Amino acid sequence: MSKQAIGIFDSGVGGTSIFKEIHALLPNENCIYLADSKNAPYGNKSASEILQLSIKNTELLLNKGCKLIVVACNTATTNAISYLRANYTVPFIGIEPAIKPAALNTKTNTVGVLATKGTLSSHLFHKTSDLYASGIKVIEQVGEGIVPLIESGKLYSDEMRDLLVSYLEPMIREHIDYLVLGCTHYPYLIPILKKILPENVSIIDSGSAVAKQTKAVLIAHDMMNTTKASPSIKLYTNGRLEVLNTLLNHQFETSYLDF
Ligand code: DGL
Fold it and tell me: Is the pTM of this model over 0.85?
């Protein structure tokens, strides 16, 4: 059991931001990553379409023998994780916008959340937001267009900068002091975001928390890989390999897979 891989999936290449955190914290673990770039973005799809795609990715990872699945996608987590947990026996780790630390620490009482439409409109997001951010002004912004630009290799482009400026300026005017990144593609934007945001605005993403949670669940289920052999790491995309390889700095084994 312990030698079986951790399965990780996302609507595309963004979840590699989570994969990197997991690999850094759990270097012995074998990992299989699926980038469903062919179907990106998930964020504008209906809840039932997001669920169907999440089931497809889960079953592929289970067929490859994964012992635990990380849903490295806020949109898939907020729309599908309860179903997945109820219908499959492996443990699932999800990711949601980290509203709680932002709401607990804000001094201006105003925080921004940048996420997909599918995440911001989900029941789970509203539940978390009501629970932790009552009395706090939460400015929700759909990051329309961001994921397609990253998926097409235009991370560092004028188009991206202009889009981000248009999303952040209203938040800056309202004096946010925390910006919550609610999509696993967005950590790749941090160098650009830092140039746009005032210095007092902290950026929060949940990647390292997901890695710590993955470790805790592996320990709790006695599933940690204790062998010292170097791990097998495989990343599959049904989209453009060079986009995946660029985000990974060409450091891992990647292949095209039609799924
Ligand atoms: N990485 C996905 C997320 O965390 C992007 C969603 C999309 O494809 O729109 O939400």
Answer: yes
Per-residue model confidence as pLDDT tens digits over 120-174: 999 999 999 999 999 999 999 999 999 999 999 999 999 999 999 999 999 999 9
Q: Of 3.40.50.11540, 1.10.443.10, 3.40.50.1860, 3.40.50.150, which CATH number belongs to 99-204? A: 3.40.50.1860
Q: Is 119 in the pocket of ligand 1 (CB under 6 A)?
A: yes
> Is residue 184 within 6 Å of ligand 1 at its C-beta?
yes
Q: What is the whole-number distance in angstroms between the Cα of residue 148 and the centre of ligand 1?
A: 10
Among the residues of the chain, which ranges form H helices?
16-25, 47-63, 74-87, 99-105, 117-120, 123-132, 146-151, 158-173, 190-196, 207-220, 241-247
Q: Is the domain defined by 6-95+207-256 classed in CATH 3.40.50.1860?
A: yes
Return the residue whose CA atom lies nearest to atom 2 of ligand 1: 73
